[in-house]
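Quick start: read one record
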Amino acid sequence: MLKVLTELAQHVGTGLQRTPKTLSSMYFYDDAGSRLFQQIMALPEYYPTRTEFAIFREHGAAIAAALAPAAGGEFALVELGAGDGAKTKLLLRELLRAGTAFTYAPVDISAGAMTGLVAALQQELPDLQVAPVVADYATALSQLRTWPGSKAVLFLGSNIGNFGPAERLDFLRKLAAPLAPADRLLIGFDLQKDPRRIRAAYDDAQGVTAAFNLNLLTRLNRELGADFDLAHWQHYTDYNPLTGAVRSYLVSARSQQVHFAALDETFDFAAWEVIHTENSFKFTLPQIHELAAEAGLRVVHSFTDAATDFADVVLAIHQE
């Protein structure tokens, strides 16, 4: 825990000195944040989760066939950021139904989340071979090179949209680096659509998304001894249909100072100054093909819902 707190303190100390001030969305997910995000996924405005579920329900068998190696042999299904594995269980059942010999390797930085997932899988899918990996993405990716046999790497839930353009390209290149020609990636992309629907998904009428964003300040108060007064902070989200970027902010509603005991430092906030907390980019199908090519990948299959709101895209390394 000390290491996590130290990393959080260093991140905050750096991020709040930038212009504009920034904090990473990776720190949203303490216990309270995780519970709030579960509520967000059930909101009527938040379409991405149920839409990706619909894709897996309708195209699960075809997705499983696109990921499994044609030649058979050892096969690992590696999922980055596995969480509760709810959507992935649909795919696991399809692979088991098809008689595919494989090992499921969920990757998550949370040991608690991993314990819960493994226990649920043992109960629901007792025939499944599970090799859990408690690590961050960078560590997991470095280990992929040493894995025997073929592999398919899952990165679901439109998490790719949380990266800015340069970070996104770098991340995809790192994903591609340990892959052999027979290996596959499956990445979820939220597609561009009615701008009003997109914005509503990140600023719901019940205020759950606002509570999720503001919970970051509660976490900083608790873990770093900060003295944010949440009564003087607001959640704000905007969507730019030209760039496909949803950006979320915490807005200081008055001129104020916030002291961090863990940093022994005080930060000044002007009235209506923002802290940028999250990006969520939306894509077009041509953009996905262009991005794949830049990263040394090619699109093998694209699976979308009936309304083309979301795409689960199977990728492979580009061969000359």
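The first strand starts at residue 21 and ends at 22.
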